[in-house]
Amino acid sequence: MKYTKKLNPLQSMVKKPKRLETRLIIWVTGLCVLQALMFGGLVYQITAQSLNDHIGDKALAVATSIAASNNVVQALNNPQKLTAINQEIENLRQLTGADFIVIGDKNAHRVVHPDSNKLGKRMVGGDSQAALQGERYISIAKGSLGESIRGKVPVYDAQGDIIGLVSVGFLVQSIEPLIQERIVEVMIWGVLLVILSIIAAVLIGRRVRNAIFGLQPDEIARLFSEQDAILNTMRSGVIALDPDGRVRKLTQRACEILDKPTACINQDLMLSDLLPEHAEFLLRNQRRKMVGFELFAADKRLVLSRFSLQVQGQADGILLTLRPADEQEYLSQQLTKVQAFAELLRVQTHDYSNKLNLIGALIQMGKSDEAIELIGQESQGSQAQIHHLLEHIQDPVLAGLLVGKYHKARELNVTLELNPDSLLGAIARTEMLERVVSILGNLIDNAIDAAIRASNERTPYVRVTVDETSKTLLFDVEDSGFGVGDDHEVIFTPQYSSKAGAEHGIGLYLVKTNLDSCGGSLEIGESDLKGARLSVYIPK
What we know:
It is built from 15 helices and 15 strands. The chain is α+β, with helices and mostly antiparallel strands and 540 residues long. Strands 2-1-5-4-3 form a five-stranded antiparallel β-sheet. A five-stranded antiparallel β-sheet has the order 7-6-10-9-8. A five-stranded mixed β-sheet has the order 11-12-13-15-14, with helices on one face.
């Protein structure tokens, strides 16, 4: 049984979009046909006018030559000589190719005419009076033989009086074949031009189709609209940039986050117009990926990521995505706590594994007393550290941060000391606590790294002091490193981790960003540990 698919009436009414090649052939061919018609009409007008002018000049020249002939003057003065002059004029007409040569007397009656039946009759056309008044001219008029181009010249006698006129004419219908010959040539070239245009349109269509990955114009328009809609519905703002920082694409969400009017989308902008404080470093080292970098802009904390745009293996700009940090507040807090706890467990596991191996070895060697003493010292030291932290640092999150850094420093053979005079109450504001954890954690990490770099010259040591007044939180982080040098601006240059999945940011640029967001300040000095001392002041 043969099955035939029946189309929906609505489907049969929908026209299939024309392919790019078809559109180009139609447009180019139509344009060429229109140009050929316009050019043909123009050529016709120019050719007709040129031929008319040429024939008119020829008619006038022949008429002038005849009017100056003595035979013609004598014939007009002596009618008996008209018969002889008629034959002479007829021979001249055939020689010049004129359709007629007519000579009239001073009353505009024909005395010489190709048709003998019309001799003696008045010249028709209404264009002879000006010649009898002494004018030489070219006219187009309809006479007894039809419409013609005429050259009219007066005939003067020896005394200078007008005794008649000469009219030499070429019929318009005899000129048309000459014009048509020219038009046929133009039409042949026009057809060749249209054929070449069709071939060119097909070749151009194929090249364009390959350049746009085989997509048709309707598909490109739909794809662009879909991508634009997707970008504008994302919760993250998107900014696409040229390598020099010129904004190529800006989404509505990015305008909302940066407090810019949506009219900016259609304006010619630079990155410095959107992020003036951070544009310089965001355009530096563009091939390096940055994920989850936290900064302060537009009076808010933002989480920004940067990716290099690659087109056929070549760098073609950068892509920035940004989102307000407060939209990820809860998740960020939980992640910070989990990471800190995981780091603490990892360090403690490694540390206690070494201690257990040592205790096991002492027992095997029969030195039970030394093993018991080591267990007591370790237990007493850990309890004293925890007791000291809980007694002086009332906020459990900050206490946990300091315990984690303490064990991390021990694993790296760095002594980390919490100043006995430290004292800090609980921080009630959640957003303030998150910034303090980020600031203090990065300062301690930088201090540990600095102390390790100088470990060949002195024992690596880090001292942390936390304190508060009624209006301000105070942090001091000192290390035994080499210091920061005289150019303090360099250390605030943004640095970020090259490890996938690392923290939001590394280095003092992140510290500076958090300080800016909460109105804090930072001072740099020298420590009695021979390294740097960084003092932070944060208003409550």
